[in-house]
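R.M. (postdoc): so does anyone remember the format we settled on? I'll just put the structure tokens first.
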């Protein structure tokens, strides 16, 4: 009689808490890693709320958070997540800062949501490194922590095992991205579906910065239709001129409106969508790599490999080895990413 399979060890996530953290970010972290979705194929997670002490911590809005572990548990964590702050200049307790420094020295990945970048900066972890925060806090982060290279318009940034994200919803983007990098696109999509959100967004936070929008609602609707067309025809070659013609615009006007709407260029957006579709095919099917490249519009395995190296820091073959799941067949249609 065959032995029962050994259950996978849960990925251990430490939520770092102290007075002043944002309730919204705590909820995002809990929703991503604190819900058991193993019945839907997601891996097990062990989320622990850590703090200097296990006494309740007040949050804005009459809420409170009760830690279930002290900061010593960070030595066991596979990932540490720091919520943002209600007041972005709130000093974190020194025990928290010291625990974060030690964790980074050990090589544990640390992610900070929104204003959580200020906490990492207080710990000195961002000196000489790139980071992002909410667009409205960019100058404040630069002023208070001049040693940080502040990226003004990214949704999230990775530098030396430290992750930072832009405001509010970008924290969800970062959390799902961290799931995707360790457990694959399908797991991230499973969690995103249960949260009723997109498994990933493309672009930068430039699209959300307050400025007069030069395009009309009609333009936005037209661009959405063009994106939907491209997603359902990923295997076909597309040029900016062709997509602009479909939108009834000049290439220059189309590119300008597209970037204002999505925060990225048409070609960068298309490459991101193709890479996401290729990830899913590599996870779900046994299709040969040239066929995966053909179905997702890369044209050749060489081109697909180049884009994987640039955007995912891996190769299609290694990605498949890490994330492939047994599937009923190999004729799965290319899944359409979120527009």
């Amino acid at each position: 009689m065959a032995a029962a399979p050994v259950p996978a060890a849960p990925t251990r996530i430490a939520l770092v808490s102290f007075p002043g953290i944002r309730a919204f970010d705590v909820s995002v972290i809990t929703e991503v890693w604190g819900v058991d979705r193993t019945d839907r194929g997601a891996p097990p997670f062990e989320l622990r709320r850590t703090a200097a002490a296990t006494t309740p911590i007040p949050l804005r809005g009459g809420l409170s958070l009760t830690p279930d572990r002290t900061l010593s548990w960070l030595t066991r964590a596979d990932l540490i997540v720091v919520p943002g702050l209600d007041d972005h200049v709130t000093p974190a307790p020194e025990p928290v800062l010291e625990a974060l420094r030690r964790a980074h020295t050990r090589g544990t990945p640390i992610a900070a949501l929104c204003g959580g970048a200020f906490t990492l900066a207080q710990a000195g972890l961002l000196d000489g490194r790139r980071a992002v925060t909410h667009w409205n806090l960019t100058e404040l982060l630069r002023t208070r922590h001049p040693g940080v290279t502040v990226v003004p318009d990214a949704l999230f940034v990775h530098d030396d095992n430290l992750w930072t994200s832009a405001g509010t919803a970008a924290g969800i983007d970062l959390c799902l991205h961290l799931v995707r990098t360790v457990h694959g696109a399908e797991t991230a999509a499973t969690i995103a579906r249960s949260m009723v959100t997109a498994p990933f967004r493309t672009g930068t936070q430039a699209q959300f910065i307050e400025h007069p929008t030069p395009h009309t609602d009609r333009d936005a609707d037209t661009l959405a239709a063009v994106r939907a067309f491209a997603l359902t025809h990923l295997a076909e070659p597309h040029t900016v001129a062709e997509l602009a013609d479909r939108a009834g615009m000049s290439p220059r006007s189309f590119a300008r409106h597209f970037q204002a709407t999505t925060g990225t260029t048409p070609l960068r957006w298309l490459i991101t969508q193709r890479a996401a579709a290729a990830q899913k095919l590599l996870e779900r099917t046994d299709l040969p790599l040239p066929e995966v490249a053909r179905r997702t519009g890369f044209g050749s395995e060489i081109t697909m490999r180049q884009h994987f190296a640039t955007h995912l820091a891996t190769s299609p073959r290694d990605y498949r080895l890490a994330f492939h799941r047994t599937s009923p067949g190999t004729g799965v249609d290319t899944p359409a990413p979120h527009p």
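R.M.: ...and that's the designed sequence above, right after the tokens. Also worth knowing: Residues 266-284 form the longest helix (19 residues). Residues 1-7, 202-217, 327-339 have pLDDT under 50 and may be disordered.
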